[in-house]
Amino acid sequence: NPYTTLLSAPGLYTVSVTDSLGNSCSGYVTIIDEGCDTVLCQSAPILCLDSGSVSVPLSTDNGQYIGAADCLFTAPNPIFYKTQVDSSGDIVLDIVADGTIDVDFVCWGPFTDTVSMCNNLTDDNVEDCSYLATGWDSFEVCSITAANSGEYYLIMITNYSNQPGNIDISQSGG
Question: Is the pTM of this model over 0.90?
Answer without folding.
Answer: no
